[in-house]
Amino acid sequence: MTAESSAAETAKTIQELLTAPASPDLPVSVQAQRLDQLRRIFSKLIETQQLTFSTTSTTTSPADSSQQQQQQQQQQPSNKDSAGHKWNSWLKKQHAKFIKQLCQEVQCGKQTALRTFMGVIASTPIHLIQTCQVSHELMMKLIIALMDSYGENENGIMPEYMLELLQNEFCIYRDVQYFLLKGMVQVANSLLGDDNDGNDDNARQGEMENGVRAENLLRILIKLDIAYDQDDLKPENVKLDGSCGMNRVNGTCSNYLFLPPLNNDEMNEDDSDTDDKKIDDDDDDDKHDESDSEEEEDAANESSLHNKKRKLNSSNNNNNKNSKKPKVKYIAWQSAKHHRNALQQCTLSILKIPNIPNRTMKQFLLHLPTNILPLVPNPLRFADFCTRAYGMGGVTSILALHSLYILMTQHGLEYPNFYSSLYNLIENNVFYAKYRTRFFKLLVKCLSGSQMLPAYLVASFCKRLCRCAINAPPSGALFVLALVSNLLRKHGECACIIHRNGDELNDPFDVNERDPSKSRAIESSLWELNALEKHYHPAVSSMAKGCGIEDEKVLHHDIDQFLLHTYKSLFEQEKKRGNNKRKEKVP
Predict the structure, then answer these.
(1) How far apart, in whole angstroms, are the C-alpha atoms of residue 361 and residue 313?
(2) Exposed, middle or buried by CB within 10 Å (0-12, 13-18, 19+), for 294?
(3) DSSP 119-186
(4) Among 107, 332, 457, 528, which lies 20 to 30 A Cα-Cα from 245?
(5) Exposed, middle or buried, 363 (CB in 10 Å: 0-12/13-18/19+)?
């Protein structure tokens, strides 16, 4: 069989597959087989260099770009009228049609199309001097298709199963993560720059649609597990295929789609080190698993944040110890610094888009303090976003409190109205909120972390907390009594509000005042403690009798133990106590 006849048969097969009728009644498996067959055909054509692309990546250096262009000029026929050039041009047009059909299927929420698109990206690398890289053009098309993916609901929201597939099978590669971040920056900037020339209704409709698109981008960002330090970017489970040239090492590894350049240490790395790292990664993954209870979720987030800080500190110490060694130059997607910069640029670009739905903004606020702020080079760039979210009130303010607290205590952010806003978050409904444990932990840190808080501020918080404790469940009342007791013993100048006689009718405290400095709580009394002494729950009643007047030798309350109380735990505790009393009465 001649080359001309083989090319003619290939062209006929491609045309038949591309022009196959698409019907809603057509089985999904048939459509998936057709697209996958096209992928295999184009992959073979690329491998045999019958199909070549002259697109230069935006992330290559000038030297790599010039070498890449010279290599492509050598691969492509010099005569534009030659048969090889015409064949390559025709294949490019057919490949573009194939990618367009794939994008349409991905937009419809088809998992098979997304998996096929991943295969296309894996078989269409951009060749550089020392390695291959992900095609930026194909990655941009995939991001846009995912951003507009709607699935069966047709409401513009990307289906969760598409995100899981992307996370489990594609985002495990470090170079894919980097190019996803860089691509989402450009897509987000294009959404922000869209101008609606129509009337106000069309403009508002366009802003709402862009808000949903930004929501899809933000959900992709949350799924990315960004590298914490340079050690996380080392190629793992490297397998060389033996075709090593002077400038390039060919092979595969488990954490890169295309094997990056290797230094001598990485090429001679022991398998035992890789196994130990895999065990550590499994432990970290277990800590990131979603738990059923909020307490377990908070503990996992705190341990995850602790591990990240420890890894970053150890990385800095190692860099200081090895400062005399020559620095190894990494390509962009193999450098932890470039990954962190890309993460910061991507996140800030998406957050600039208005009208992002609140449902995803809450998820992002949970993700921000543990997975983004410890990694980005300049966390204070997120100060405006955190302060705006903190001022929105409700659950959004509660979730933004953690990030804002980190920026204030670790990065020197000045926010004069912080305690005033925190004061207004203490309401009756916060004791029944989903994220109450998270809020109470941060409240304890904010009030107990400094000895320099003024007396009027501490008195205002104690008064407002005790007022809410009257209507709170027993678990919430116990937490308030423990916290108020610690605050009054720590700030002796506030003891007057306990010993001063007063009642509800003559109380100077202004419960409706939003400024704690004007609430006049320091002139009031904690008559609420007398009301809590008559509480139906015996633990609350007994604790209210001694709140703030404990002996100096008595240790402060362990607040963490009170945060674990629930209706169920208190019921089981009383049930156990009752059983013990009945056993004591038995002769």
Answers:
(1) 30
(2) middle
(3) HHHHTSPEE-SS-EE--HHHHHHHHHHHHT--TTT-SSPPPHHHHHHHHHHTTTSHHHHHHHHHHHHH
(4) 332
(5) middle
Range in 102-116, 324-338, 566-580 the model is least confident about: 566-580
The amino acid present at 57, given as its one-letter code, is S
Mean residue pLDDT of the chain comes to 81
What is the secondary structure of 364-386 as a DSSP string?
Answer: HHHHHHHHTTTTSS-GGGGHHHH
Output Rg (C-alpha) for the chain, integer angstroms.
Answer: 31
Which tokens hold the place of 173?
Answer: 């590669």
In the predicted model, is pLDDT for residue 486 greater than 50?
yes
pLDDT digits (tens, 9 = 90+) for 132-149: 899 999 999 999 999 998
Do 91 and 13 form a contact (C-beta atoms < 8 A)? no
List the structure tokens of 439. 């809020």
Structure tokens that stand for 246 in this block: 């002077």
Helix 174-192 / helix 136-147 crossing angle, nearest 10 deg:
60
Q: Tell the burial category of 289 from Cβ atoms under 10 Å away from its Cβ (0-12, 13-18, 19+).
A: exposed
Amino acid, single-letter form, for residue 62: P
SS3 44: helix
Whether pLDDT at 23 is above 70: no
pLDDT greater at residue 534 or residue 75: 534
| Vertex 282 angle, CA 280 and 286, to 5° | 120
In this structure, the strands spanning 239-240 and 132-133 are: unpaired
Spatial distance between the Cα atoms of 177 and 150, rounded to a whole number of angstroms: 23
Strand pairing class (239-240; 251-252):
antiparallel
- Give whole-number Cα distances, 171 to 104, 119, 438, in Å: 21, 13, 29
Contact by Cβ (8 Å): 498, 526: yes
Confidence of residue 504 (pLDDT cuts 50, 70, 90): low
